[in-house]
């Protein structure tokens, strides 16, 4: 099934329209909310929730922005060809030195990608503040398979969490094959899990020694 957004350059146009929309907004922050990156991110997401269907234009057949905070998606849409996209909005303030956002669980992504018509999409928004005005400086709108593994890492939570290693350094491979990206994911995980087993064994050994020390202590 063809994708009219990501198999063409239309995803670049959506990114440009997103940037233009955000920069055309009246000031939507207060002095207090501007201090909080979370508050700014939530405000940006609210604006996009209200307008993203229009940003997609003719490609959008169905749209939803009604998701729980822990859901895989912030926004979702089905295109005219029947492809289903869940969109995770990530914001990054440029003057922060380090940011390592979680993207999704490896297990959840693998299950989601069992259907070739499903797309896990990232809407990555970099911004700076001019007083209390948000100035969007760069926007990427890409499926996760366009992200180079050189800028990704895996965190030890559950089956593993795919993370951007540093939001100041996002590397893209536009048009990259999903099959090849998923094979790379498998290689990453097959290297990751043995290391976690080694860490677990070290912790077991440690607590065996702790237990032994406490068993030999006299009661007080």
Description of the molecule:
This protein has helices at residues 10-23, 31-34, 37-56, 106-112, 178-215, and strands at residues 60-64, 75-79, 84-93, 102-105, 118-130, 133-143, 152-155, 161-164. It has 5 helices and 8 strands, in the order αααββββαββββα. It has one domain: ECO RV Endonuclease, Chain A. With 220 residues, it is α+β, with helices and mostly antiparallel strands. Helix content is 38%, strand content 25%.
Task: Briefly characterize the structure.
The chain is of the alpha+beta class and 220 residues long. It has helices at 10-23, 31-34, 37-56, 106-112, 178-215, and strands at residues 60-64, 75-79, 84-93, 102-105, 118-130, 133-143, 152-155, 161-164. It is built from 5 helices and 8 strands.
Helices and strands in order, then pairings?
Blueprint: H1 10-23, H2 31-34, H3 37-56, E1 60-64, E2 75-79, E3 84-93, E4 102-105, H4 106-112, E5 118-130, E6 133-143, E7 152-155, E8 161-164, H5 178-215
Parallel strand pairs: 3-5
Antiparallel strand pairs: 1-2, 2-3, 4-8, 5-6, 7-8
Helix pairs in contact: 1-3
